[in-house]
């Protein structure tokens, strides 16, 4: 049994299996343990921040997202994604990415033209080193075409290097409506 005084000075008795001297010793944390705990917390925080920065820097965005956020040399006031996804003559748009057998990274856009069975397809080739060219882009427009199915069921694909220009200007491509 331990006998001591309360804060008010009254005598009190406690049933305590541990001696009073031991209690005082266990409450005090040695300075070396305090500094070790501080160091460990600091190391964990540094590791966490480094991991987050690494994850953000290492392909946080897909190739498609990076391309859609990019700017094409025709108009610096609008992103590629906004220009293509919001072209008023497309009823539906799709994006996909793939790698060629030679290791080239390609992002492909498909837009379904209004009131016809025409599909506009534009492929963008991404530069591996992410260096920007003279237009400020880190990609090339590598292929542009439109395809349609004839009344007899034949599929036709016609290469047209001016499609993206009409899309950026938000102008109708009247000749595409002829392929119904």
Commentary on this structure:
The protein is α+β, with helices and mostly antiparallel strands. The protein has two domains: 2-57; 63-178, no CATH class. Helices cover 30% and strands 28% of the residues. It is built from five helices and seven strands, in the order E-E-H-H-H-H-E-E-E-E-E-H. The protein has helices spanning 20-27, 31-57, 63-69, 80-85, 163-168; strands spanning 2-5, 11-14, 90-99, 105-113, 119-126, 139-149, 155-159. A five-stranded antiparallel sheet has the order 3-4-5-6-7, covered by helices on one side. Strands 1-2 form a two-stranded antiparallel ribbon. The protein is elongated. The mean pLDDT is 77.
Give a concise summary.
The chain has helices at 20-27, 31-57, 63-69, 80-85, 163-168; strands at residues 2-5, 11-14, 90-99, 105-113, 119-126, 139-149, 155-159. It is an alpha+beta fold.
Helix content: 25-40%
Count of strand segments: 7
- Write down the overall mean pLDDT: 77
Put simply, the count of helices is: 5
Look at the helices and sheets and give the structural class.
alpha+beta
Uncertain parts: none
Order of helices and strands: EEHHHHEEEEEH
Query: Into which percentage range does the β-strand content fall?
Result: 25-35%
Radius of gyration: 34 Å
Number of domains: 2
Distance between the termini: 99 Å
Could you give a short account of the major beta sheet?
5 strands, antiparallel
In spatial order, strands of the major sheet run 3-4-5-6-7
Shape annotation: elongated
Present the secondary structure layout:
Layout: E1 2-5, E2 11-14, H1 20-27, H2 31-57, H3 63-69, H4 80-85, E3 90-99, E4 105-113, E5 119-126, E6 139-149, E7 155-159, H5 163-168
Antiparallel strand pairs: 1-2, 3-4, 4-5, 5-6, 6-7
